[in-house]
Amino acid sequence: MNQPKRSSYPFLSLADTLAGMLNFKQNELSVVEYKEEFKQKRALVASLMGTKWLDKFVENSVEYTNATASKQKEMKDEAFEQFTALLFMRGANNDFKETYNGFGLRYSKDKSTDEYPKTMQQAVDVMAAVRPKKKVNANKDPGRENQMRNQDERSDGQERVHTSFAQRGV
Predict the structure, then answer these.
(1) Measured distance CA(115)–CA(113) in Å, rounded
(2) With 0-12 CB in 10 A as exposed, 13-18 as middle and 19+ as buried, what is 29?
(3) Residue from 115, 55, 114, 120 nearest 81 by CA
(4) What pTM did the predictor assign?
(5) Where are the domains of the chain?
(6) CA 163: distance to chain centroid?
(7) Which residue, 57, 34, 130, is CA-closest to 42?
(8) What is the C-alpha separation between 26 and 30, in angstroms, rounded?
(9) Low-confidence ranges of the chain (pLDDT < 70)
(10) H/E run at residue 12
(11) What are the tens digits of pLDDT across the range 59-86?
């Protein structure tokens, strides 16, 4: 049941909004539709929490403590955009999972190899570069078609007549 924003408990509203962004999945949406809906969810989170709620997380990172003052400010300013770009890629459908998992694999081997998109536009560009995998329909599988065709031919090249078990002769 949808309740007006005024009558819902504020922390519950915040939790639902944040969960909506964290758990949003592309499913059958096109990349453009997914981007637009995700941006709406991101804007709603930003309107409730602002974009600076990741500052403490950034301040606790090793990269932040080793950075110059101007770089530290830049890291804080870009944190929300970077975090939401990551969530956007994380929620993309299976066509993009291999690319997303590859970013993490390379980063785990070498921390200087950070290929994760830093902005929504970079994430969309990465997704646009990936070719969607074709879905194989069992009825349209060419290997299955050839197998069925081969079963229908007898060794002498003539077609086999299909009968049920009750119709087989002696």
Answers:
(1) 6
(2) middle
(3) 120
(4) 0.69
(5) 7-129
(6) 48
(7) 34
(8) 8
(9) 1-7, 111, 132-170
(10) helix 10-22
(11) 999 999 999 999 999 999 999 999 999 9
